[in-house]
Amino acid sequence: MLNHVELLINDMKLLKNIIEEICQHALKEYPDECCGIITGNDDNQTVHLCENIQNKMHAEDPLRFPRDARTAYFIERSLFDNIISSSRKQGEEVFALYHSHAEHEAYFSEEDVAAQTVFGEPEFPDALHVVVSVMDRKIHGLKCFKWNGENQVFYSEDCI
Ligand SMILES: [Zn+2]
Fold first, then answer.
1. Pick from 20, 66, 17: which is nearest to 45 by CA?
2. Cα 138 to ligand 1 centroid, rounded to whole Å
3. Eight-class DSSP state of 149
4. What is the CA(109)–ligand 1 centre distance, in A?
5. How does pLDDT run across 10-21, given as a tens digit for each residue?
6. Residue 86 alpha carbon to ligand 1 centre in Å
7. Ligand 1 center to residue 32 CA distance, Å?
8. What is the per-residue pLDDT across 48-72, written as a single tens digit (0 to 9) for each?
9. What is the mean pLDDT of residues 84-101?
10. Which of 40, 55, 76, 118 is the most exposed place for a label (fewest CB within 10 A)?
11. Which residues constitute the domain of residue 34?
12. How many domains does the chain have?
């Protein structure tokens, strides 16, 4: 019984309308990757759509940013910080971060791990990381990942 309760507490669920919103965002940006932030808690969640400026980064510095927006995403840091600070003013924390993969499965790639970890530790260790896969202009899958501090890895999490 106790195990069951603990499982429920650990399970972070994305609300149905939030899943729909991020799927719509992924379809809209296809074949580029979309990206964004979800703030709130189990009962109230807000999607903050972010612009993927990876193409701009790639054009300006192809050595540092060898990929374009079809296989990578980049959120402008000041925009990212603004979303987080204004959400915190309203008592909302980062609940999840999301991005899409075009013509690739919903896995957490090495690049995704690198983007989320600075010196081996993630910036938001409690956040869900949602990856939406779009193939042939249709939603192909959605997976969530969460940081495990003990093992220092991201593992797949049930989020629907
Ligand atoms: Zn990715």
1. 17
2. 17
3. T
4. 5
5. 578 899 999 999
6. 26
7. 11
8. 999 999 999 999 999 999 999 999 9
9. 96
10. 118
11. 2-157
12. 1
Query: CATH code at 111?
Result: 3.40.140.10
**Tokens read off for 159:** 């989020």
φ, ψ of residue 4 to 5 degrees: the values are: -65, -45
Centre of ligand 1 to C-alpha 143, Å, is: 11
Instruction: Say how many Å lie between the CA of residue 5 and the centre of ligand 1.
Output: 32
> How many contiguous H segments (helices) and E segments (strands) does the chain have?
5, 8
Q: How far is the CA of 12 from the centre of ligand 1 (A)?
A: 20
Instruction: Name the pLDDT band for 30 (thresholds 50, 70, 90).
Output: very high
- What was the pLDDT predicted at 139? 96
pTM of the model: 0.91
Give the pair of three-digit tokens for residue 136.
């042939």
Between the CA of 62 and the centroid of ligand 1 the distance, in Å, is: 19
C-alpha separations of 102 from 53, 90, 133 in Å: 16, 34, 6
